[in-house]
Amino acid sequence: MTDTVFLLVATYGSAALFAVTFLSCLAVPVPASLMMLTGGAFAASGDLPLASVSLAAYGGALSGDQTGYLLGRSCAGWLERWAEARRGRAALLGRAHASVERWGGMGVFLSRWFVSPLGPYVNFAAGAGRMRWARFSVWSVAGETVWVALYVGLGYLFASSLTAVAEFAADLSGLVAGAVVAVGLGFWLRMMQKRHGRVKG
Fold first, then answer.
1. Which residues form a coiled coil (predicted)?
2. Which residues of 46-75 are buried (b: 16+ CB within 10 A; e: fewer)?
3. Which residues neighbour 15 within 8 Å (Cβ) at sequence distance 6 or greater?
4. 100 contacts 69 by C-beta, under 8 angstroms
5. Closest Cα partner for 19 from 48, 39, 43?
6. What is the pLDDT of residue 198?
7. Mean pLDDT by 10 residues, the chain (201 residues)
């Protein structure tokens, strides 16, 4: 995978970064974080301008967020059917809806970089739930700023240890995502327990 990402960035440069970050925000399984790390490393070696790498990744992420929000707003029924076709997608979309309802704009912000696997589904859920576009956009811009700066910056600073940084970032992302799922399940079980107790009473 790493060799393929290197080749894509070396061949297509910033255009590849734009395309991959855009697609990742629409739940397409592409290695966006690894691409940004690689883009940062290429910038550190002088093969690509740092500004070009950062702006391409940032522009792709923001465009993907906006597209996902608009899809959710205009195609809510279709998205529900699309998610139900696979159990994993349905679970992620359900957690995204809960995140938007519970945390609002902060849920959008955190799903850009802290729990990025939820990000695309939060885009859909925010649109389907009729979150105000201006509010969504402000939190999206803030979150994507952190995501792009974090990964491009790590690639730039640790270009000589890119593989180790990529593995660490993947492990950390998986750990955070797992913790969020566990907390979410805990809240759900507690809620169900309370509801069950009320029914019994």
1. none
2. eebebeebbebbbbbbbebbbbbbebbbee
3. 56
4. no
5. 39
6. 57
7. 82 95 95 91 93 98 97 85 79 82 89 89 90 95 96 88 59 47 51 57 52
Q: Would you state the pLDDT for residue 1? A: 63
Tokens of 42: 């290429």
pTM, 2 dp: 0.76
Distance of alpha carbon 195 from alpha carbon 53, whole angstroms? 50
How many Å apart are CA 159 and CA 188, to the nearest integer? 42
Q: Which residue has the tokens 């912000």?
A: 109
* pLDDT computed for residue 172 by the predictor: 45
Q: Where are the domains of the chain?
A: 2-200
> Under 8 Å CB-to-CB from 123, ≥6 apart: which residues?
25, 26, 64, 65, 67, 68, 69, 71, 72, 140
Q: Transcribe 158-190 into DSSP letters.
A: TGGGHHHHHHHHHHHHHHHHHHHHHHHHHHHHH
- What is the reported pLDDT for 49? 97
Report the C-alpha gap between 55 and 74 in whole angstroms: 28
Residue 72 backbone dihedrals phi, psi, to 5 degrees? -65, -40
Amino acid at 92: L
| Predicted local confidence at residue 137, as pLDDT | 97
DSSP 10: H
